[in-house]
Amino acid sequence: MLSRFQYFKPHNLNEAVQYLDKEANSFVLAGGTDLMILLRRNVINAEHIVDIKALPETGVFEYTEGTGLKIGAAVVVNRVVDSEVVNSRYRALHQAAASLASFQLRNRATVVGNICNASPGADLPPALLVYDAVVNIAGPQGTRQVPLHQFFTGVKRTVLQHGELVVSVELPESGEGDKSIYLRQARLRGHDLATVGVAARVKPDGKVAIGIAAVAPTPLRLFALEDQINARGLSQETIEWAAEEVKEHIHPITDVRSSAAYRLQMASVLLKRCLLALIAKED
Amino acid sequence: MAKAEYKSKYKRVGQRYDRKDAREKVTGQAVYTYDLELPGMLYARCLLSPYARAKIVSIDTSKAKALPGVRAILTGEDSDILVGLYMQDKRVLSRGVTRYQGDVVAAVAAEDEETAERAISLIDVVYEPLEPVHDVDEALEGKILVHEDINELKHYVGVFFPQKDSNIASWNKSKKGDLEKAFAESDLVVENDFSLPAVAHVPMETHVSIVQADPFSNKIKIWSSAQSPFAIRQIMADSFGVSESDVEVHIPYVGGGFGGKAGIHLEPLATLLSKAAGGLPVKVRATREQEFNQLPTRAGMRGRIKTAANKDGKITAMQAVYDWDSGAYADYGVNVGKTAVYSGIGPYSIENACIDSKTIYTNKVFSTAYRGFGHLETHWSIERQIDILSQKLGIDPYEFRMMNLLEPGDKTMSGEVITESSGNPKECLTAVVKEIGWTGRKTEEERQREWKTGKVRGKGFAMLQKAPAMPANTATSVVMQMNGDGHVKMMIGAVDMGQGAITALSQIAAQELDMPIEDIEISAQIDTRSNPYDWNTVASKLTFLGGNAVVKASHELLHKMKVIAGQVLRTDPENLLHANGEIYHPHNPNRRLSYKDIALGYMYPDGSGIGGPLIASGSVVADGLTNLHPETGQGNPAAVWTFGAHAVEIEVDVETGSVTVLKVASAFDVGQVINEKLIYGQICGGVLQGLGSALLEGYKFNKDEKLMNPSFTDNKIPTMKDMPVEIVPIYIENPQHNGPLGARGVGEHPMISVPSAIGNAVYDALGINFHVLPLSPEAIVLGIQSGKKSILCTDVDCLPGRL
Amino acid sequence: MDNNKDCSMYTEHVDSGKRKVTLSLTVNGHQVVRDVDPSMSLLHFLRDNIKLFGTKEACGEGECGACTIIMNGKAVTSCIVLAVEAEGAQITTVEGLAKDGKLSILQEEFISEDALQCGYCTPGFLMSARALLDSNPNPSDEEIVEVLSGNLCRCTGYIPILNAVKRTIEREQKELGR
After folding, report:
1. How far apart are CA B389 and CA B400, in angstroms?
2. Complex prediction ipTM
3. Of A164, B3, C149, C173, which one's alpha carbon is 20 to 30 angstroms from that of B801?
4. A99 touches chain B (CB under 8 A)
5. B696 lies in which domain range?
């Protein structure tokens, strides 16, 4: 690692934002599972590291009936995996969290970090997207909220501006009869980045939401496909149709992990399996 | 995860003793080269070529030199030393041209790693990228030469055959019978191509070497994570123009080798840096990325197999052409290629056969030995070809193999005659086929029925054979000395990198000397100043050769004890026997002496002594081996064949392509189990490595031959989640008459033919013949989607390992 | 998990041109106070600074688990934790497993089941397994595999490691009443 940085661990949000705003080459540290690799590979040159784990706002992990789930930026993935509430009410998020990286990394990696890293193939965004997650951002100009589907702007790029950090992510209430699932394909059973990851949710009103990763420069929420599915009504026939149609809504590339052709096929298979599982559950 | 219930006929050999190095390894006390710090030690970093082939126009090291803490900077202009195991073809630092994207262009030694890394980042190099040699076909065209000086390269004459003005580092050949006649007269001739990519060894400890080159003498002191202390000593002496005795090699614990740490690697660079830094010790440690893209790998290979058979199932002829993509340097690669000419038709009796094996230079990561070298690759070709032949003949693949496998009286490819003492391949196959409940191939109807469920099961099996690939005069030795407490201090020259050598050899000593294994003192750590000579820790040769040396030394020690005991007990030494750490007279057991009483010489009550400290040795050289004839490949290359077979049952998810390995049954004719716990470990570990090659692993290069997966992010190895549901080890014990207690080596064998067995099972499941590895989920799905019954290539643009 | 006790108030001083932070933590029951460079990883701190060489680096990127240690009860890969993040932490390394000169049951079972060959990954496996059994004394096979699949081993094929952990569970229940 060529970076030589100062380490700063603020105790309140203002202090953190001011520091980030003031110092040019400053980076936010939460779990560090992505940041440390960027530093080690000298992809970034950091002069300041701001450890946000002591901010009161980032430690929040709470579910409020009627309001939903709030996950602070310091909450590690294994805490989400172990959460009964998440397992029962936000099933896809539980499954995505449980499939992210290795157990040891999940003890450090944070949910918000998985969003901020903005990897096209990140596991958590598809699940968060189907729950209409909203990202809470703090910055020199105050706080703002951005829906997750507008948060990503490209490969490893987000709407975050200089001096801003994500404080937490919120998921609206998910109540009775709300069902979801996350399925992924990887090169092996052990920890691996997803070749394709698909989350699907059927709301109590029967409407479908679909999130997908590793098939475009950013994780996607497939609104247009959802509308078409909802118009047709969720059935075995619709699912067969959607499994083909999904290929028109995504733009996978060929890279070292997979060919575009295989990603198209997996998007189709996983979407079919997700939706079939969700209608099977209704029986 | 069933374990065979194994009972040994011996008191100590065959028993499940704990490994001798285990206690140090579970407490964090085991010291690896990575852990060593020496007084004044400097740390090195390397600047690697960013291009597969480029001209080095200029190098500016001035900024790096100015950095405080930098003690030495080297470029290719500072040294003209060439190194190489069999071909002296590799410069320690590139000069003028780089030959792969891991070639070392400059190196720095500094007071700490961080300073070395920073210095590297300050070196400016101007390159002129050149068109690389991409693959074996381009290399064989020979328009661009990877080594323009190939005609002048020093090499091991008579064993390896570099071709003039070409990219062929060695062309080895073998032939017997009348191939053309057999092809013309046989009922069926089948010709197929098979290929597999380069695969990394992935030892958990990366390569690391520390060298102190004494500025006041010729002494070069080396500490290294290496498998071949004595080969390093010899090659270093050759390359640096000093005497072998000037080179000291110390091997602490080694964190995995698998062949990748055989021969010589970072030692010459560390030596040059130490010399440049005034003789301070310099530590060169490969990062994981360098382990993938700088250190050598298993070569990619293409096999073209043409086989003839008669309707009744007798194989009449086999022609094999093996083209090895050895990358930029020959290293062990030429020996891998040589192996193919005597083992490259598998364990079959075939009268007419011909093999051409070419180790070929390209501008990729260079290749070396990897567990069972040459065999996983050739057996992928042969055992798939045999299966395809049996399909075409409509004969059950088990029956077909049984009709053609070697049996006593048959001749191997190189003309050796198989005897009862050689082991029994048929017994191995029969055992595994029975274990997985083989009842014949699935019909197309059965496949279709299962296909509808989304999951299709398949069974498959494959044979394997391997003999140690080693020079005809390969030697090893053992020294035993008795301590005052009656324990035996045993010294060997081979390295225990986890395969269990020190435990297995101690068991043989304990058996022969009839004393507790706990009383055999042996260290995994090697020092060439004190440990006796061993050629190389490779090739599964140690149990056999080293075991025999231990037997010899034990017998010598016993003889010496009996000579002294004879004097004390006033009898002819030949009247004495030994048991449980004592020498005794069988007629009158009261006449006895414990080993301890004569360990340092016997002392009479009046204080006078006889005998002196007990020391014995055992030296062994491979028996009856010869170099192979350069044109016909006839000769005797194999000290000991170990035959085996794997059978597997798998389940394929036809939509995602994921393969689940339900069961692996593995049988080896080991002659005699030395330690059931250790052999079980070799089988579990070898099978999983084989599954990695079968399903997952492989280097991926882009069109500029830059390695695209030089990290664990994208160069995956199997995890605990990827192990088979069940592994059943089967030990077959047809003793080898000249083996130690009948034993043969089996360290490498469990990895061989795992991919072939899986490939055959995939055919059983899907009715598709895959000719290329790995059988990744993607490969399976794209193969199914293609609608073809033979898949020669699974990449999008149909070039193996291409992006 | 978030260890937010303090540490905003780093002490900063300059020592031979390097910026240092004073770090205080407990390693294997011993209080340790050292000045460290903030860019130093916890792995390098343990090895280079307090000379505990049992913890190994094999990838440096959190992918292989060789450097796994227990930090505040959790198994973490120490190569991608900054030493300064361990302020106030309780750390256990492989050197802390044996107590009073006696190997732990887990270590004994690793020996007995031959759950190691080259031994380089072994400390990481031991720490992952220890952390698991400390939080869940009776995990299912699936739970063991989930945790230990974060550690790579190239030698053993994992089966003996899984067997060793299962044997440890039995023995700890019997002998320690877990």
Report:
1. 9
2. 0.96
3. C149
4. no
5. 300-470+627-791
